[in-house]
């Protein structure tokens, strides 16, 4: 599935003298929000705006595969984090703080989404809390942000029960309303450890998804054997309902802790059912093995998770930074291995989320990033300012700053 930005008519653009990842020098022709051609020495047509790339490295627009725009404190005063160590501590603390402070999901999601654009992200999947206290208020704010930026940012919204599905009566009805109101994907959270009944939890989740014909993206923090049990139940339902290619398992920490034989059996099922994995590559938690996933044919992509919220002071809307952190977490040092980390926030993430018309080829949506870097590996490590960001054929950032029209 995909959400597609509305195509506002744009003037034709020719970007000259840029380098592809293989080092070849090319020009890029853009018309009506699409890449018309990529090649050396493209003709300079009358009336076409010229942009001198000056030898910069050309990259596709980045893809954020997992964030929480509605929660962020981006641009606000520093939040003093004194939350307890348990997942439930963070959930309850966040609910209290958002209710008491009047946190505005609309204004905050817009601020962070614009920061993502300026840093080169043109496709984004965000989870949004659906809560029996807040109702659909957070969703309404993020829907407004999506509408404001619809011409340049392709955004998918996940209706996410941050407190679980079964513990607070009425959550399933709110999720039902959220999917009808414009959410693209159904979220879920730890069916065993949060909901306490993985069978019932997954039954409700898959029932809602089937009713609305929506894909699923489930947070699975559950460790070891508990997580493996839940993952097995989930895969059974994917097979039974024919939902191959429509489910993402975010985090999947259990796959980093299981014995190799049990882990590999699950990876083979994931590959066979085309269930993708999302990792934020946390430094202190076991994660699914990147290269083993690739060898088994499992799609593994990347995202930030929360950014500057009550859960964490960390995170950044710069997906080159996230790619570098993924590379560091997996011990990637060779230039070709660093390219795997970049794929996690570009082509692989686009495929996993269902963002169509992605990439650097004729006919793709014109989402481009120019950086002054020798190679892709250099760009990940140095993370230079974005020289130019084009989204849906429109210039949305130059030298790290947005034009007045986006402010």
UniProtKB/TrEMBL annotation:
Pfam families linked to this entry: Amidohydro_3
All copies of domain Amidohydrolase, residue ranges: 52-396
Superkingdom field: Bacteria
PANTHER family to which the protein is assigned, alphabetical: BLL3847 PROTEIN, CYTOSINE DEAMINASE
Official protein name in the record: Amidohydrolase family protein
Organism of provenance: Paraburkholderia dipogonis
